Amino acid sequence: MGHAHSVNPNKPLEYQTEKNQMNILGFWIFLGAEIALFGTLFVAYFVLTGRIADGPGPKELFAIKDVLIETFILLTSSFTCGLAIHEMRRGNKKGLMTWLLFTLMLGLGFLYFEVMEFIHYVHEGASIQTSAYWSSFFTLLGTHGAHVALGVGWMTFILIQLARRGLNATTARKAFIISLYWHFLDVVWIFIFTGVYLTGMVM
Amino acid sequence: MAWDEFFVTGDPLIFGAQISIVLTIIGIVFVLTKYQKWTWLWKEWLTTVDHKKLGVMYIISAVLMLFRGGVDALLMRVQLTMPNAEFLDSTHYQEIFTTHGTIMIIFMAMPFLIGIMNIVVPLQIGARDVAFPFLNAVSFWTFFMGAMLFNISFVIGGSPSAGWTSYVPLAGDELSAGIGQNYYLLGLQISGIGTLLTGINFLVTILKMRAPGMTLMRMPMFTWSTAITCILIIFAFPVLTVALAMMTFDRLFGAHFFTLMDGGMPMLWANLFWIWGHPEVYIVIIPAFGIFSEVISTFSRKNLFGYKAMVYSMVVIAFLSFIVWVHHFFTMGAEASVNSFFSITTMAISIPTGVKIFNWLFTMYKGRIKINTAMLWALAFIPNFVIGGVTGVMLSMAAADYQYHNTYFLVSHFHYVLISGTVFACFAGLYYWYPKVFGHKLNEKLGKISFWLFVVGFNVCFFPMYFLGFAGMPRRVHTYTEESGWFDLNVVASIGALLMALGFMVFVYSIYYSIRYAERLTTGDPWDGRTLEWSTPSPVPYYNFAKVPEVHGLDPYWEMKKQGEAEFDVNQVELEPIHMPDNSAVPFIMSILFFIAGFGLVFEWMWMGIIGGIGVLITMIVRSFDPDEGYHVEVDEIKEIERKARRKEA
Fold first, then answer.
1. Where is the Heme-copper oxidase subunit III family profile domain (chain A) (predicted)?
2. CATH code at A104?
3. pLDDT greater at residue A123 or residue B627
4. B468 and B489 in contact (C-beta within 8 Å)?
């Protein structure tokens, strides 16, 4: 194993050190575990679909307009996150930070609409205690939302570190890893949009 | 909440335990203060990120848990020895079999094996530490705090009593109204974080940190078994995380995942539990296979027979372990085609397992076998494990399973696979690698005495249970009548349990005895070993390898010795400064905060859960801002340490 202190021009900044390569691989593997986690939540959701007891069903309640706004915001945030990494690869710290800030704001916007949507459901008489269906709905969506919230906090601290320490191999790796995380949450959302909302409206 | 609801009261056994816990804590504090060891404890152990020290702490915790789980087992045997005994009432008996099962699987078997992985894997692949040393410390401490949270249940608040499988509705908040079940949920959840992190950490370590020349197909078998176990952990543990969270929501927030009312589905729990649970039993058996492969190869003084077949068979077993879970509840009433599918996949596992058994036998064939304690455990494993495996195939036949289900036949089966597989491997591994860590062997004579007591006791204890099962004795009953005809075999089983307990006591004594009296080793290679860990001095310097070795084939150290290249002279090799990670207090503090959050949730004191949770987040932020640059060990210092460690004149 060579000591990778010298800069390799063929590799992006975040892959320059061995430690960084291991961190990034480790994070990919962690995302594998996350797939298992969300996979289980989806399975439980599908198994419990239709078990609404005396409570309302999804068709009556789903606020599809809110959901579309959330989807639009989150997909855009994935795009801005991609732009951030693009700027990072060009060595442009200001561009990276600006687009990360956009991503962060969009993440907050998503959370605002999701919380509003949940409040709406609860007012209409569908909470985690209503039925097995709504338990699994709120757990699946809540887990995703909690991930987004965590991502927003995490991104804030990475922005602070970028501002203080500048763009170097370590901060580049951190920014890259949160971008992986952010795109992953977007992919999960696409499954939620299709599997939960579209299916729920149609079935 | 009044204090007598907070503490468990009214049982002399538990009162005794409470007093002994207090006395033990006072004793520990007294000794640490008297010998001024607090700084030492903090600097050398509580904040360490060294994989060897973490491994040692894992194993010490696991041995303590083996003691706790063993005491539970003995209490059950005392109760079952006589018909209509009144030593334990049914509630207390249920609590004990629940904690026995949970502790033995989650807090004994796994950490023992993970401890051995911690010590051995980086050394076997020629690495200086694991990929993420900080995360490794988080793994250990979350496991430890999760285990402590689960363990205090019997003195504070009451133990869980719904079995280690915690089937609903029994484990729901109507039928398990106390807080005991919450301990199960939170204790497992917190220690599960550590297990998942270990899985990721060791997989990256094995993929990225192997010495130059060590291709995947040149890795030692124990390293292979660890890699495969990691993959099982990574895909199985998130399922447990979700299932535990769902039951927690059911119990704490009134959700309806597994309830009988409002659309809940109790069998969903059984499915999710075993989708994790079956890979879990392979998480504790595959590393055991790895340990036996190393031990048998070393003491037969031959390379492992059928190396590739050994690797592929583990891969196949790991894959199949994800598609057999329904065999745990054939009697649930799924249609015949479903049961048939899971019957066949279950039986299929016996094929790769059979391959492994024959490979171990062929490894020994025509080898110059050296019998010592480690090898004895490995030798005893083969026939005992075969008994466990064959009865497993009997259970795998869905139609026949209706007869065996929930009887002592099953109890005997899984003890035969888990004890002769996992526990024997823990002992074999401990005897085999102990000298590497501590620089002296464990006493062979005491080792053999404890081996014979334990193995004979094990068979005396569990073999009769097969027949108890045939005779219809159901598991998890706290007593039986005299007319049942189960009396005499239960007496035999209890005698066996006593022998096992004696074996354990001799084992613990042998550690004490060896620390005091064993001859100190002058070599790092007491067994004439084959893999890289034996090329380091014992005890191993904290940076492991002064110079990372190059690997040209299987069993690299054996080849080096044959070529006459094994002698490591620190003056002749060119050394470079070694980069090492800094110690950190964050993992320990973070895990205490996890404990506080978990304790709060157990008692449904939300304020406490929130405080703990915020604390955990703060420690994560602290970690994120930590530059974590580590430090360098300079060449002169390495030379000095190597000279001392290899006991060469200065």
1. 25-201
2. 1.20.120.80
3. A123
4. yes
